[in-house]
Write a structure and sequence with these properties.
Length: about 325
């Protein structure tokens, strides 16, 4: 073999060359992007003992959830920045179409005042909850051991911001019709003090300090998010329709469509992890640690939501069915 043949350049990215085919857009822009994993002893190619390097060595490299090649993970939907924006541009067009159509027909003026009072207690304070979801996903994006995992967390964080924005928009709309109920003024007090939210507040605030990347993923994606989706989003959707608030029902349904994509990528990561010895015990141990907190949160919220009988039982069962569906 001549030197020219030896040095013949590859026709594709070297880490994808073994697949013997042209890489997809997803593979090109999503895989093997974390330079901080190249040298485990010095994650940022600087002093291996400076605080950030120690943080990543402790909470990422020393995570008890192990795999020989986390970079092999692939998002089942193969979402990239371009396609995420296309997808969610359509979602936002739909949501703001709902806002405009229901506003034009005077939707809020038709709502019962008792239901509006329930919304001020059970719906509009959720923007604090959604912001915490955004923060948790953003941390996971930073600490995850592979760029394909981080990308999923980034898009998930963006979805939480969209949910927050929708809730804030509705808060202002409701305040125009029910200016004496407390919309836009009382949400922080309710979030911090009302018993209906204290279960979820404790759950999410403790999950935000689960620094280990694997426990962060497990707490947020396998316990916290499913609990919120089944109790808060699905519960509000059901109760809203029973109280003539079709807009809230359709808005929550749109957010639950995002949640299904979140569950797909989380389930695929769990399936990948379960292929390694020892990981089942680690994941199931974390789920067992966090699930009682989620059950308490679901029970407190479900008991307060009107026109949603048995929500607590149905929500808890749905979370466990999700766990079973991904092999836990």
């Amino acid at each position: 073999m001549t030197q020219a043949e030896t040095l013949k350049p590859l026709k594709t990215w070297s880490h994808l060359a073994a697949r013997r085919r042209k890489p997809s857009e997803y593979e090109i822009v999503s895989t093997n992007l974390h330079y901080s994993t190249d040298n485990p002893d010095a994650p940022f190619e600087l002093d291996p003992n400076f605080p950030m390097a120690q943080w990543f060595k402790r909470y990422r490299n020393a995570c008890p959830l192990k795999h020989g090649d986390w970079d092999a993970y692939r998002d089942p939907d193969e979402i990239v920045y371009r396609t995420y924006n296309m997808l969610q541009d359509g979602q936002e067009t739909y949501v703001y179409g709902l806002f405009n159509q229901f506003s034009e027909r005077g939707h809020d003026a038709l709502l019962d005042r008792n239901w509006a009072t329930s919304l001020a207690r059970l719906y509009t304070p959720a923007r604090y909850l959604f912001h915490a979801l955004q923060m948790g996903s953003a941390y996971l994006a930073q600490i995850a051991p592979a760029s394909t995992i981080s990308n999923c967390a980034v898009y998930q964080s963006a979805d939480a911001l969209r949910w927050l924005t929708h809730t804030a928009y509705r808060t202002r709309e409701l305040a125009k019709t029910f200016d004496d109920v407390g919309f836009g003024r009382e949400e922080r007090r309710i979030w911090e003090q009302d018993t209906v939210w204290q279960g979820f507040r404790k759950l999410i605030e403790m999950a935000l300090v689960a620094w280990d990347w694997g426990e962060c993923f497990t707490a947020m994606n396998l316990v916290v998010r499913p609990a919120i989706e089944e109790a808060v989003l699905r519960g509000l959707s059901e109760a809203g329709r029973h109280n003539g608030d079709t807009l809230l029902g359709m808005l929550c349904d749109a957010q639950l469509a995002d949640a299904q994509r979140h569950r797909r990528w989380a389930g695929a990561l769990v399936q990948m992890a379960l292929g390694e010895d020892g990981n089942r015990a680690v994941l199931e141990g974390w789920v067992a640690k966090w699930q009682p907190l989620a059950d308490t949160a679901i029970d407190a919220y479900g008991a307060a939501l009107p026109e949603a009988p048995g929500l607590d039982v149905r929500a808890r069962n749905a979370v466990r069915e999700f766990h079973q569906s991904i092999g836990l």
